[in-house]
Amino acid sequence: MQGNFLKGKTALVTGSTSGIGLGIARALAAEGANVMFNGFGDATAITKLQADVAKEFGIKTSYHNADMSQPTEIELMMRSAVEQFGGVDIVVNNAGIQHVANIEDFPVDKWDAVIAINLTSAFHTTRLALPRMKENNWGRIINIASAHGLVASAQKSAYVAAKHGLVGLTKVTALETAQTGITCNAICPGWVLTPLVQKQVDARALEGGISNEEAKRNLLAEKQPSGEFVTPEQLGALAVFMCSDAASQVRGVAWNMDGGWVAQ
């Protein structure tokens, strides 16, 4: 992009200690944004991650362990961002969990957890970030939805409902901020080889008595015509574009990066 064009801005990326969230956090850091990490993991590893990213890109980093299913913890995290950085200029709502079951067998507590973390948390970060963004007349809200925010798959009722809801929330946020310097958009990834997806690949390999590589090919063949995984780095580059001036009229978009998944 323009190189360091986000210097002085602060990005909060939820679920950013690994996978897609980390890829996006690193891409924003490379453009000079300070980063507040959030997510689960080993405390020592997270401290090292913070220090490494800060050193590599010459930025400030911090971490908040807010459980994204708890509104009070989200409020504490947003308050912490104000105390440390003066507020949040870029919010990337990436935290997500998955549970797979038929609707009649879907545990109610799992439904509630998937909706809370994948959808409701984005409402809370957005409502808490908007007042300062409006004061500054600049902000970027990027919701990481999914190809499942645009199309469905069996046995993923809560996830598909949450991600469709996230696309809807994106559109409303974009309309409410349409005449400001704040934009809101969704990114809808297809299969990305995150630790979560690698577990599914491992399970398939074990179950079918096939190699890991073959399990990956089989997984991709079902949905993703390119036969290749989307990478966190590619998603990071798209997020950076959405933060740029070039994207100031990209508003309320659900942008799929999915190797052709929803083109079918």
Strand content: 5-15%
User: Structural class of the secondary elements?
Assistant: alpha/beta
Quick one: biggest sheet? 7 strands, parallel
What is the quaternary state of this protein?
Answer: single chain
Which regions are unreliable across 5 or more consecutive residues at pLDDT < 50?
none
Helical residue percent band? 40-55%
Q: Could you describe the 3D structure shown?
A:
- With 264 residues, this protein is α/β, with parallel strands linked by helices.
- It is built from 8 helices and 7 strands, in the order E-H-E-H-E-H-E-H-E-H-E-H-H-H-E.
- The protein folds into 2 domains: 10-191 and 231-263, NAD(P)-binding Rossmann-like Domain (Rossmann fold, 3-Layer(aba) Sandwich), CATH 3.40.50; 193-229.
- Strands 3-2-1-4-5-6-7 form a 7-stranded parallel β-sheet, sandwiched between helices.
- The longest helix has 29 residues, at 108-136.
- The model has no long low-confidence stretch (mean pLDDT 97).
Task: Produce the secondary structure layout.
Elements: E1 10-13, H1 19-30, E2 34-38, H2 43-57, E3 61-64, H3 71-85, E4 90-93, H4 108-136, E5 139-144, H5 157-176, E6 182-189, H6 195-208, H7 212-223, H8 232-243, E7 254-257
Parallel strand pairs: 1-2, 1-4, 2-3, 4-5, 5-6, 6-7
InterPro entries: 3-OHbutyrate_DH (IPR011294), NAD(P)-bd_dom_sf (IPR036291), Sc_DH/Rdtase_CS (IPR020904), SDR (IPR050259), SDR_fam (IPR002347)
Protein name: 3-hydroxybutyrate dehydrogenase
Organism: Noviherbaspirillum suwonense
